[in-house]
Design a protein that fits this description.
Blueprint lengths: L2 H18 L18 E13 L2 E10 L5 E7 L1 H6 L5 E6 L2 H16 L3 E3 L2
Antiparallel strand pairs: 1-2, 1-4, 2-3, 3-5
Amino acid sequence: MSQQEGAAYILALILLIAFTSPYIPSGPPDSIINPFTCKKIEGSVVLKEHDDDGHKLYVELYIEEYDNAGYIVWVSNKTYHAFEVGDTYEQITCDVFEYESIIEQFEDLQNIGILIPTS
């Protein structure tokens, strides 16, 4: 085997390893990324209502490792018309700080009455 063929094999091996190795996302320097503890957050609109009190979306919410249920969300007219029954949202986060921030915001919305459990 010539030196040129050896270099070609090494380059092919490096490319194979690069393409088949798992992707570990990089984040901002102040975040903690752990690809083995990624969390999925999902929501779907199951019902829409509007009356004299305002506009409401009924949402089924799923957050990994959290109490999951249905919620009534008080929304603006614009948000109400931007979503239809069956619309879904999905996010996967591997950033520990981002996940904690989402949970904190979720709990804050419940505490101020914008997000109301259906049961």
